[in-house]
Write a structure and sequence with these properties.
Helices cover 12% and strands 28% of the residues. The chain has 275 residues and is an alpha+beta fold. The strands form five sheets. Strands 2-12-3-9-10-11 form a six-stranded antiparallel beta sheet, with no helix packed on it. It has a three-stranded antiparallel beta sheet with strand order 5-7-6, with helices on one face. It has a two-stranded antiparallel sheet with strand order 1-13. Strand 6 and strand 7 form a beta hairpin.
């Protein structure tokens, strides 16, 4: 059953004509859990992959979370400092942490960049760790140009395949500074060069992080109009207008509200990447 976005209740470019210069056409994928065919566009489904081409792997170090309990004597000192702060707050003398409590927190964090869990009284931090062996990537998406005409494909290609290493990484080549997330690998192909016969099952990664493991989804691509995010609009466009609805009530329209919330039937299914 094809998925489409319900008609918008109003035409915002009539109410706010200046928004017309800040629109663009884009593709809404409408992913839904299912059993996608290898020849079709999908999220988390099988890829058209040449039998002679090795499956890509990741050798970049991953970020692993470590934790350790705070020393019992320090836990008691932190609890006492918290009780004193709450008592001051209850008597109207302010609830800010004292220099003494801040010093205890610094002592508890211990390691550079460590965070403190004051519920379980542990410290947590991330360390870089190499994969024990090259980690096979997982298939995130396969997208045919016919389904996403708003995306510019390199000349001679009509198929985009997205794979990633389902673990956290930092300081990857080609990624923005302070990036943290999967190592992403893009493959641009020509679909006519590939066989649609089922290939061998890809190797499974040894190291994974569950939120980065996509749920297989079939897609229902739809072309929609997208409006520029309000905070990026020119100042003269950031105004509000009152619109009278069909039942006679008034509705305040701002550039922020031009991107209407998705109705439940159009929201992406949970459990797969934000594509």
């Amino acid at each position: 059953m094809p998925r489409t976005t319900p008609p918008r209740p109003i035409d915002v470019t009539v109410v706010l004509p200046e928004l017309a210069a800040h629109t663009r056409e884009t593709t809404r994928l409408h992913p839904r859990p299912g059993a996608p065919d290898i020849a079709e566009s999908s999220i988390g489904g099988p890829l058209l992959w040449p039998a002679s081409e090795p499956w890509p792997t990741c050798t970049a170090p991953r970020m692993v979370q470590r934790s350790e309990p705070i020393a019992p004597a320090l836990v008691l000192a932190l609890q006492q400092a918290q009780a004193e702060r709450e008592a001051r707050q209850g008597s109207g003398r302010g609830g800010r942490r004292s220099p003494e409590e801040l010093a205890l927190l610094d002592e508890a964090s211990g390691r550079r960049g460590a965070s403190i869990d004051l519920i379980h009284y542990t410290t947590c931090w991330y360390e870089s760790e190499a994969h024990e062996e090259p980690n096979p990537l997982v298939a995130v998406a396969q997208l045919h140009a016919r389904d996403i005409p708003t995306v510019g494909f390199p000349p001679g290609t009509d198929l985009l395949q997205v794979l990633w290493c389902p673990t956290d990484h930092q300081d990857l080549p080609g990624q923005p500074r302070f990036y943290g997330g999967p190592y992403v690998h893009l493959v641009w192909r020509r679909a006519s060069d590939l066989s649609s016969a089922p290939g061998s099952v890809p190797p499974q990664p040894r190291d994974t992080h569950d939120p980065y493991m996509p749920t297989p989804c079939v897609l229902h691509p739809e072309q929609v109009t997208e409006y520029q995010y309000a905070d990026l609009l020119p100042r003269h466009s950031a105004r509000a207008s009152t619109h009278r609805t069909s039942n006679g009530s008034k509705r305040l329209i701002t550039p922020t509200s031009t991107t209407c919330p998705s109705p439940p039937a159009a929201r992406p299914a949970a459990g797969h990447p934000g594509i």
